[in-house]
């Protein structure tokens, strides 16, 4: 921790040292700092993850969805007195899988060809899928149709994250921090807006229709605010002073450096190897633990006879979690955490504590649960932003766009595994 974040107009060159055995060199090219780009990336992060967060916040309600007088409404919560957990028939992990598997599919396949697709085309697809998700869920009359809307939100989020993280390689490295802070802001504003609108009496349908302003804002941020550096011919970056990341079997580096779009499939697989343990594994484990708590255990932690009913408690758990994520994702300019594996350890400690509370309730107040959830969110946000910030400093510039896209698979894989675990755990606990 404690390394100052560089906010100078030009990035310093040659100050970042290589981390020993991993031959991943820091960038030597300097990119100008511009506030309009920082603002644009913050809003891109906000808008890209907004729909994804709203769908997770609405998961408990989607699974209780009923048809009332031709309108899709949030089902009223009633106590299931035969079970201490007041269970839905289906775990919210099912909504989590619908919200992550399409994104994961995109992230695992697209990095190997997506660099050849123009950014305007990719962003247009993100906008369309995002708008479709709100419209489908808003006018849905069944869980099945609502899940289709969740899938659209997932496709928008996955394609957007892959595209916009790659886009940061054309800008000052503080764009990574801005993007990460924006995604954290999406968590807070997404969860808070959904819970808040329902709390003051706005219908679920109208709440989702109001959120159609989000894809519009993403369009404005990308096409009007962000400088169009990605549309120019990529600059030729000097690489003579960098340690090679790719090498031929005889140890001789390739004769020329290539951008992600020009690398062969074999070379791309070679690029992935040094990323696995250093960046992908700890991020994967943090997200497995984090989302197992969120979608496997949150709905089973229920305080009766307080000012919030079960559905409202679930929504506010999501809000508190997202506040923690936002704080930590916005903090990399103050504190950098290099020990990514330590974050994974602490997150699994959280799993043990929350599972113990589910099995043998021992916490006397929901406020203690709120504090634990805030800590959980802080850890998750710190893992995300520090992983990609370290990469922005340590990965050679001509490989950075591809590498950022590959590592973004780790969090999605972790979320998918968490959802798959949450469903059988929910079924076992609810059968007790």
Describe this structure in words.
This protein is mostly helical and 432 residues long. The chain has helices spanning 35-57, 59-62, 93-109, 119-138, 143-167, 174-199, 204-210, 213-225, 265-272, 275-297, 310-329, 340-359, 366-394, 397-430, and strands spanning 66-68, 71-73. A two-stranded antiparallel sheet has the order 1-2. Strand 1 and strand 2 (71-73) form a beta hairpin. Helix 1 packs antiparallel against helix 5 and helix 10 packs parallel to helix 12 (340-359). The longest helix is centred in the C-terminal third of the chain and has 34 residues, at 397-430. It is globular. The N and C termini lie far apart (45 Å). Mean pLDDT is 80; it is low at 1-28, 66-81 and 233-259.
